[in-house]
Specification:
It contains 6 helices and 4 strands, in the order E-E-H-H-H-E-E-H-H-H. It is mostly helical and 150 residues long. It folds into 2 domains: 8-102, Winged helix-like DNA-binding domain superfamily/Winged helix DNA-binding domain (Arc Repressor Mutant, subunit A), CATH 1.10.10.10; 115-148, no CATH class. The strands form 2 sheets. Strands 1-2 form a two-stranded antiparallel ribbon. A two-stranded antiparallel sheet has the order 3-4. Helix 1 crosses helix 3 (45-59), helix 1 packs across helix 4 and helix 2 packs across helix 3 (45-59). The longest helix has 28 residues, at 75-102. It is rod-shaped. It starts with 7 loop residues before the first strand and ends with a helix.
C-alpha cells in the first residue's frame, strides 16, 4: 500500500485531516491487528495506536473495538472503510500510472522533411517503432496533413 504523503488538508469546518491517519485506519481494519498493520506501514504499534486514537477523537466515535486478543471494526468504522477504500484505491492506481509514465518516452517531435522523405524513408521506419514502443495503431496523420498543403 502506498503511504500517502499529503500531510494535512484544511476542510470547510476548520478541522485538519491527515490522510496518513486514514491509511493507518485502513491498514488496521484490513489486518485486524495493530502489530501486523504497524509492520505493513513501517511504524511502531504505539505510534499506530496513537494515530487511530487521534482519528477516533476527530470523528467523535470509536472506529475499532480493541480487546487483548483481537481488533474488530465498529459499524462507524465499517462505514468509514467503505468510503475510504475506493478513493485510496484510485489514488494508488493514479500513482502507479504516473510511475509507469516515468519510464515511457514522451514528448513532441517535429520534423520538417519533404513529401518523398516522409513516405519513402521516414514513415516506413518510424511506424514500426511507434507500434513497438507506444502501441501506436494510427495512420500517418502528420504526413497526410503536411502533404495536403504542398
Amino acid at each position: 500500500m502506498v503511504l500517502i504523503m499529503l500531510s494535512e488538508i484544511l476542510n470547510g469546518n476548520g478541522m485538519r485531516h491527515d490522510f496518513n491517519d486514514y491509511v493507518a485506519f485502513m491498514a488496521v481494519a484490513q489486518e485486524c491487528s495493530f502489530s501486523r498493520a504497524a509492520v505493513r506501514l513501517g511504524i511502531s504499534a504505539s505510534t499506530l495506536s496513537h494515530t487511530i486514537r487521534r482519528l477516533e477523537e476527530r470523528v467523535g466515535m470509536p472506529l475499532l473495538m480493541r480487546t487483548t486478543r483481537r481488533v474488530a471494526v465498529t459499524e462507524a468504522g465499517k462505514q468509514l472503510l467503505l468510503t475510504l477504500e475506493p478513493g485510496l484505491a484510485r489514488i494508488e492506481a493514479g500513482v502507479t500510472a504516473l510511475q509507469r509514465l516515468r519510464h515511457t518516452p514522451a514528448g513532441l517531435v517535429r520534423l520538417t522533411v519533404s513529401d518523398h522523405m516522409i513516405h519513402e524513408c521516414l514513415w516506413p521506419r518510424l511506424s514500426p517503432l511507434l507500434k513497438k514502443i507506444f502501441g501506436y495503431q494510427g495512420g500517418n496523420v502528420a504526413a497526410e496533413r503536411f502533404c495536403r498543403h504542398c
